[in-house]
Amino acid sequence: MPGDKDIIISEGVKKWFGDFQALKGVDLRVKEGEVVVIIGPSGSGKSTFIRCINRLEVHQEGRIVVDDVELTNDLRNIEKIRSDVGMVFQQFNLFPHLTVMQNITLAPIWVRKHTRADAEATAMALLERVGIPEQAEKFPGQLSGGQQQRVAIARSLAMEPRIMLFDEPTSALDPEMIKEVLDVMKELAQSGMTMLVVTHEMGFAKEVADRVLFFDYGAIVEAGTPEHFFTSPEHDRTKLFLSQIL
Amino acid sequence: MTQTAAPKAAHERPPFWRDATVLKWAAQIAVLLGLVFVAVIAARSAARNLEAQGLTFSWRFLSDPPGIQLSEGFATLPDSGLEAILVGVVNMLRVTASGVVAATILGVVIGIARLSSNWLVNKSSTVYVETIRNIPLLLQIVFWAAVFVSFPSLESEGSGPIEGWLYATNKGLSIPWFFPREAFWQWAVFLLAGAIAARFVFRWRIKVLEETGHDAHAVGYSLAAFLAFAFVGWFAHPLAGAIGWIFGGLAWLFGSIPVLLMQIVLAALAVGLAAWWIKRFLDSLRSPAGLARLTDDDIFRMGLAGAMGLVAAVVFFLVPGITEGINLGLERLFEFWDTKFDFLRTGTVLEFGRPTVETPGRFAGFGLTGMTMSGPFFGVWMGVTLYTAAFIAEIVRGGILAVAKGQTEAGLALGLKRGQLLRMIVLPQAFRIILPPMGNQYLNLAKNTSLGIAVGYAEVVAVGQTLFNQTGATIQVILIWMGFYLLVSLILSAIVNWYNRRVALVER
């Protein structure tokens, strides 16, 4: 259950790509341990927003504070936040030239300065947790999409992050593999991880989310509990969107 | 369970004029025969023309004194045509090897610089690439050779920035150098052993690192092992002279083995090689379940390999000259190496030489002098290095850009620093993309050194041309050129292919 502390604070975040304004002032406070699901049509800025949180995109106006550290041009702050915030991508982005084990242990060894033995023990435990310990010595190209995404989750968890960002984690998967990834994410949510999830999986949102946000045209149109959201949405745009996908 | 009849048509052979396998192999054999036919026609017409001009096709010029002087090389007054060509070959390989190293370093640096977000670095490397690769290489080589000529002239007294140590003159750039002496190769045995030991030490320390997690100083340890061998070898090298016995024995063996016995050995080798290839081929088709069904293609291929082995074996018996030549060559080779080793022979390993001016305008050519880089060498080397580096820069830039953006993002999201990201994620992946076109650039560089003829650099084309002007052996020299460049190209591409396979990504 969510704690009291605001671990992510976003105030009036604006972002332009050239002339196109992708974010038009996003205000959001996420409590520690909260699971926030972001939905919305494509091009609505939801991915851009979560990519701003670990500064894969740079916001031009407004303020983002993650775990009491403000995201500015200070490289030390950026590095601190990136190593505390895990991210899972739509395209997995595993390193194809490294084995599963090397993928997971790379950052703990080089960023956290753990010994190889420690990092490998942690990695094995995480692979057990995501259910594929037998794949440790394989290369990403030898795994199925669902397995790759689970490795990607394990790779992020190996850094012991306080927050996990998921950018459409199941959109590139075959239907029969979506469940295995969602199961891992559910288990993670129940363990008390703070999660920001951009997804089109409404079942996941209903079951796991503490709060659902609806993004459109670069701003949060509506926010609320899943119950409120899926039974009595207020805004017309939300209703229209839900009627199209449900 | 329902029994379905096997589709019959699939197992029936089509008539041979519609059989894809038969047609494919027939086409290959036809092309081969066509090529042989053209070659025979060309050879006969060449022979007729030579005869009409009163020339004879002979390889005697290789052993005759050529009566030419070369501008640089290990023998500037060669005793035989063969030696002259070897001087050219060594000169060509010298400028190729140093050019490949320099062009790679420069090209990688400029390629990365072109991706820099620093405006000045980015633009200046762009200007470099766009300028250099749009100027013909020949002009660049001539330009750099001309730059060299504008250096101060070499006088006996007071030339060079540092008298007796460093000269930068129009006759060459000369620096002090080490020269291997009579005991050098005995010491080299220790260096080789040291390198092997260093490899084992390195692996051992890496294992320690992985087991304990503490830094095990793998590089330091292996370097220390190598230096220890080098140090001990400096004094103990007379012991390594015992290797001479092996070379002596081998020289005696090839000198006294009857030709017939050697023919049998060589024929057995040819047949054995074919058999080994066929076995390996079959193994590659074997899965845990058993041997895969052989296609007609596979059978043709194995048949061809077997036939080639047999033909080679028969040729060894029909032409004893080949075997005699191999025997003689190996005997000479091992005799040569035998002279470099002598058990308990003491002597100097290395000696230090300083540049010496023999007469005004001329460096001492032999003995303990410095190492001199000549103007023509400088011209060719600068030309091919700068030119090839521009192309390598583009290949490196393309390779880095081809690594998916998501890889960088994933690395950054994990908290890796820019340098770590480049070193551990981007470059290893870019390298796989870069490698094949890079091999092409190395081949180009090797072939472009032949432009050295324009500035009088004594590489294999220049030497060959001088040689056929003297002896009239035009066709023979052209054949040697073709054979040589083919050999260099094949070796280079074999290395690149081998490495490419080694670093290929593992997928399903």
How would you describe what is shown here?
- The complex is a heterodimer of chains A (246) and B (508).
- By secondary structure, chain A is α/β, with parallel strands linked by helices.
- Chain A is built from 9 helices and 10 strands.
- Chain A has helices at 46-53, 75-84, 100-110, 116-129, 145-157, 175-190, 202-208, 226-231, 236-245; strands at residues 6-17, 20-31, 35-39, 61-66, 69-70, 85-88, 163-167, 194-198, 211-216, 219-224.
- In chain A, the strands form 2 sheets. In chain A, strands 6-7-8-3-9-10 form a 6-stranded mixed sheet, sandwiched between helices.
- In chain A, 48% of the residues are buried.
- The mean pLDDT of chain A is 91.
- By secondary structure, chain B is mainly α.
- Among the domains of chain B are: 81-176 and 354-503, MetI-like (MetI-like fold); 244-339, no CATH class.
- Helix content of chain B is 67%, strand content 5%.
- Chain B is built from 15 helices and 9 strands.
- Chain B has a 3-stranded antiparallel sheet with strand order 1-2-9.
- In chain B, helix 2 (81-113) runs antiparallel to helix 14 (460-471), helix 7 (243-256) packs antiparallel against helix 10 (320-339) and helix 11 crosses helix 13 (418-448).
- Chain B is globular, with a radius of gyration of 29 Å.
- Chain B starts with 19 loop residues before the first helix and ends in a 5-residue tail after the last helix.
- Chains A and B meet through helix 2, strand 6, helix 3, helix 4 and helix 5 of A and helix 5, helix 12 and helix 13 of B.
Outline:
The complex is a heterodimer of chains A (246) and B (508). By secondary structure, chain A is of the alpha/beta class.
Superfamily (CATH H level) name of the domain at 81-176 and 354-503 in chain B: MetI-like
Q: Numbering strands along the chain, what is their spatial order in the largest sheet of chain B?
A: 1-2-9
Top-tier CATH class of the domain at 81-176 and 354-503 in chain B: Mainly Alpha
Q: Please, what is the average pLDDT of chain B?
A: 87
- The sequence of SSEs of chain B as H and E is HHHHEEEHHHHEEHHEEEEHHHHH
